[in-house]
């Protein structure tokens, strides 16, 4: 299982190893899906630990973001390592999650209300 924390404000923080291997990717995806199902409306922070980021972890981040986007849930990614952040930003597709260097910045970003649609 992946470490998870739910903040007092209801944000789900999921910690994922950036050096996740291909075998661990499916286990992580199932665990993330379970967390998202259990906390249906909560914003999500995916915190990457340990650098460098591998293809399996990058794929897991993309999948988690896709699941959150489909559910209309805000998501942010935390990566303390600058190289991991650059890799995530380089592989970002449209509507990619915000990538932050600290958990505090990610939580602050998720607390900032989105502008109202015109």
Please provide a brief summary of the model.
This protein is an alpha/beta fold. Helix content is 44%, strand content 19%.
Features:
118 residues; single chain; five-stranded mixed β-sheet; alpha/beta; 44% helix; 4 helices; 19% strand
Distance between the termini: 42 Å
Query: What's the gyration radius in Å?
Result: 13 Å
The coarse silhouette is globular
How does the major sheet shape up? Answer: 5 strands, mixed
What fraction of residues sit in β-strands?
15-25%
Unreliable residue runs: none
Number of helices: 4
Helix content: 40-55%
Topology pattern, helix = H, strand = E: EEHEHEHEH
Largest sheet strand order: 1-2-3-4-5
Structural class: alpha/beta
- Give me the count of strands: 5
Please, what is the average pLDDT? 85
What do these coordinates show?
This protein has 118 residues and is α/β, with parallel strands linked by helices. The chain has helices at 22-38, 55-71, 82-90, 103-111, and strands spanning 4-6, 12-17, 44-49, 75-79, 98-100. It has a 5-stranded mixed sheet with strand order 1-2-3-4-5, with helices on both faces. Helix 2 (55-71) links the parallel strand 3 and strand 4 (75-79).
What is the strand and helix layout of this fold?
Layout: E1 4-6, E2 12-17, H1 22-38, E3 44-49, H2 55-71, E4 75-79, H3 82-90, E5 98-100, H4 103-111
Parallel strand pairs: 2-3, 3-4, 4-5
Antiparallel strand pairs: 1-2
Helix pairs in contact: 1-2
């Amino acid at each position: 299982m992946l470490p998870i924390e739910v903040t007092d404000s209801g944000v789900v923080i999921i910690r994922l190893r950036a050096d996740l291997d291909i075998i661990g990717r499916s286990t992580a995806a199932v665990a993330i899906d379970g967390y998202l199902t259990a906390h249906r409306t909560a914003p999500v922070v995916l915190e990457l630990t340990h650098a460098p980021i591998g293809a399996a972890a990058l794929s897991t981040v993309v999948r988690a973001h896709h699941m959150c986007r489909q559910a209309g849930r805000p998501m942010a990614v935390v990566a303390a390592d600058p190289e991991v952040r650059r890799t995530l930003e380089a592989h970002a597709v449209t509507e990619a999650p915000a990538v932050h260097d600290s958990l505090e910045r990610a939580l602050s970003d998720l607390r900032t209300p989105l502008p109202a649609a015109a």
